[in-house]
Design a protein that fits this description.
Elements lengths: L7 E5 L4 H10 L5 E6 L5 H6 L4 E4 L5 H8 L4 E4 L8 H4 L4 H16 L3 E5 L13 H6 L1 H16 L4 E6 L1 E3 L7 E5 L7 E3 H10 L9 E7 L30
Parallel strand pairs: 1-2, 1-4, 2-3, 4-5, 5-6, 6-10, 7-9
Antiparallel strand pairs: 8-10
Helix pairs in contact: 1-8, 3-5, 5-7
The protein binds NADP nicotinamide-adenine-dinucleotide phosphate.
Amino acid sequence: MTDESPARVLIAGASGDTGTELLAVLRPTEFTVRATTRSYTNVEQLQRLGADEVVVADFFKSGDSVAAVEDCDIVCCALGTPPSYRHTVGGKLVDRTGVSNLLTAAVSEGVSHFVHQSAIGVGSSKAGLPLPARLVIRGSLKAKHDAETAIRRSEIDYTIVRPGKLTNEPPSGDIVVGEGGDSVSGSISRADVARVMAAAPFTGDARNRTLEVVNRGGLSGPPKRVVDVDWAFDRINADPDRMRL
Ligand SMILES: NC(=O)c1ccc[n+]([C@@H]2O[C@H](COP(=O)([O-])OP(=O)(O)OC[C@H]3O[C@@H](n4cnc5c(N)ncnc54)[C@H](OP(=O)(O)O)[C@@H]3O)[C@@H](O)[C@H]2O)c1
């Protein structure tokens, strides 16, 4: 990424609910936004939502992952397994295999920052998700744990964002951030997750950290291990020349 040319940001899983919010955040900025989906039928919709480029990619395929990441500076990964018994039984899940292919492609492309949407409940944050819910999605939690580990072990700068239960509320901007796993629990809007993910590559405080995030109004139980993060929201402010409806 150079200061002269605006960065190209890949939103992996742009057709999903958080991915769509990421598009809304990044559309009015100076960045070139590349969106992915597996389905050609989503292409026009993603362009309408503000994607400058759309790549049809299945991240189970390493060739698709390489093509999706080509020439990108930043990757925002909002991939997830659709509703399925696989959340319980595990196996080959996009949360592990797809993220791993994406990460490998990002490392060889020289991507400067990998932002990953994980979940409270994964790994050290298991106390933040009640046991019955953990049992139901134990397969995808394990896959996400493996993906987090691969990201931390890679040579790429990263931010792993572990949100609580996702809602479709408007952004509140009031986010409580914890670190160390057993920290905060509750819910957060996808819109607030998207703002945090978009700002993460420009936020020194967020570099190479794994952070649990919830909305203050969505907190369940007393927050612990709260950390102060000075999110670089100024970097994702709208560029007036790029405002379009
Ligand atoms: N639900 C919650 O309360 C909660 C809480 C914390 C964290 N999370 C996690 O947050 C993440 C985002 O959740 P969300 O509900 O916003 O997402 P979502 O609506 O389920 O979207 C998932 C995205 O992943 C894409 N995808 C799935 N398999 C793919 C594959 N093989 N190749 C390429 N793309 C693939 C889908 O694309 P297409 O279908 O268009 O191809 C879609 O864009 C997920 O990892 C989820 O587990 C969820």
